[in-house]
């Protein structure tokens, strides 16, 4: 159990409590991987369904981009977390996989998560404009402008994250088993304070800043939804308004889920920056509190990237109808073989 934990989390202390080790194995080896596999399947279905909708609609473009980045996030997450499972059967291959996954998948995985969080924020802003400026929304937001905004957002996160892409490198030690270990090459060559400052800045933008924007936009949308619902009960709204309200409610749930998850995701980075002693012991290993934060973070990251399919199916009749239609076609082709 201790070996598995040490492989799953870099620099984990072998003296951690047995209960914490059991929790780490339960979540890192089983629960997170199961949710990630289900999330990949859900995002593939999201992409298939959304591609059958009007791709000129800015909302569809945002949801399609978010499903794609969430799928890539989960795909790059599984090899890193499969280390825990592999270590239960063969330690050396697990160490090799851990080395390569950390060196080459950690930052692409994090980048996909950053882009996904940016897309959620864009959804909240786009819906705010659509709800409060309905007469001019067509001239303010169109397909070309939305694609440009998404591209600029991707460039923004890539620019901020660029120093971290070369952070890890693989070195081979001189021990008898020739087990690989990760060397923090950039940390060795450069001042760590710059990385820590940049890291906490990214965490604040992704966490509190994004959540604040989402909450403000969501509150404004809820106020308009309340007014629209009241008019519907008075018979002042058309059937199309009912469909629009359903879409708004669905997107509101999507943004609300991220708002709930966004703040906890940024806490470990901020805690480490403010008080490193809480997270790292004097011998360089993680404290039990830091390990617990990482376990919770792993679960929240994967849940955030996997939950949207459930929201779409349960709250959008159009999405559900398209999903059933595609499933029926697939079943018919499968039976005809």
Description of the structure:
This protein has helices at 2-8, 18-50, 58-87, 91-104, 106-132, 137-140, 143-165, 185-189, 192-233, 239-274, 276-279, 288-306, 308-315, 317-336; strands at residues 169-172, 180-183. With 337 residues, it is mainly α. It has a two-stranded antiparallel ribbon with strand order 1-2. Strand 1 (169-172) and strand 2 (180-183) form a beta hairpin. Helix 2 (18-50) runs parallel beside helix 12. The relative contact order is 0.13.
User: What oligomeric state best describes the polypeptide chains here?
Assistant: single chain
First and last CA, distance? 47 Å
Radius of gyration based on Cα positions: 22 Å
Could you tell me the mean pLDDT? 77
Pfam family, one: 7tm_1
Transmembrane segments: 19-41, 61-78, 90-107, 113-135, 147-168, 203-226, 247-271
Domain G-protein coupled receptors family 1 profile: 42-312
Protein name: FMRFamide receptor
Structure, briefly:
This protein is mainly α and 337 residues long. The chain is built from 14 helices and two strands, in the order H-H-H-H-H-H-H-E-E-H-H-H-H-H-H-H. InterPro entries: GPCR_Rhodpsn (IPR000276), GPCR_Rhodpsn_7TM (IPR017452).
Please specify the SSE layout and strand pairing.
Blueprint: H1 2-8, H2 18-50, H3 58-87, H4 91-104, H5 106-132, H6 137-140, H7 143-165, E1 169-172, E2 180-183, H8 185-189, H9 192-233, H10 239-274, H11 276-279, H12 288-306, H13 308-315, H14 317-336
Antiparallel strand pairs: 1-2
Helix pairs in contact: 1-2, 1-3, 1-4, 2-3, 2-12, 2-13, 2-14, 3-4, 3-5, 3-12, 5-7, 5-9, 5-10, 9-10, 10-12, 10-13, 13-14
């Amino acid at each position: 159990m201790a070996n598995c934990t040490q492989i799953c989390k870099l620099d984990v202390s072998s003296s951690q409590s047995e209960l914490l080790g059991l929790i780490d194995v339960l979540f890192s080896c089983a629960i997170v991987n199961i949710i990630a596999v289900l999330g990949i399947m859900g995002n593939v279905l999201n992409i298939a369904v959304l591609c059958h909708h009007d791709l000129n609609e800015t909302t569809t473009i945002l949801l399609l981009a978010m499903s794609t980045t969430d799928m890539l996030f989960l795909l790059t997450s599984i090899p890193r977390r499969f280390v825990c499972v592999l270590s239960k059967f063969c330690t050396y291959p697990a160490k090799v996989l851990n080395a390569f996954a950390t060196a080459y998948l950690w930052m692409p995985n994090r980048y996909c998560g950053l882009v996904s969080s940016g897309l959620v924020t864009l959804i909240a802003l786009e819906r705010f404009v659509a709800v409060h400026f309905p007469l001019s929304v067509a001239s303010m937001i169109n397909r070309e402008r939305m694609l440009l905004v998404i591209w600029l957002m991707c460039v923004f996160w890539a620019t901020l994250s660029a120093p971290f892409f070369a952070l890890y490198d693989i070195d081979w030690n001189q021990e008898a088993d020739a087990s690989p270990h990760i060397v923090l090459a950039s940390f060795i060559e450069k001042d760590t304070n710059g990385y820590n400052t940049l890291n906490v800045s990214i965490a604040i933008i992704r966490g509190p800043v994004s959540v604040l924007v989402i909450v403000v936009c969501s509150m404004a949308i809820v106020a308009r939804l309340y007014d629209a619902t009241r008019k519907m009960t008075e018979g002042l709204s058309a059937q199309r308004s009912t469909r629009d309200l359903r879409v708004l409610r669905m997107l509101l749930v999507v943004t609300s889920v991220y708002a709930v998850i966004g703040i906890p995701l940024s806490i470990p980075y901020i805690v480490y920056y403010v008080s490193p002693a809480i997270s790292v012991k004097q011998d360089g290993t993680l404290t039990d509190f830091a390990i617990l934060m990482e376990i919770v973070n792993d679960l929240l990251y994967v849940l955030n990237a996997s939950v949207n399919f459930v929201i779409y199916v349960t709250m959008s009749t159009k999405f559900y109808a398209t999903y059933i239609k595609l499933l029926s076609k697939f079943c018919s082709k499968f039976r005809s073989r």
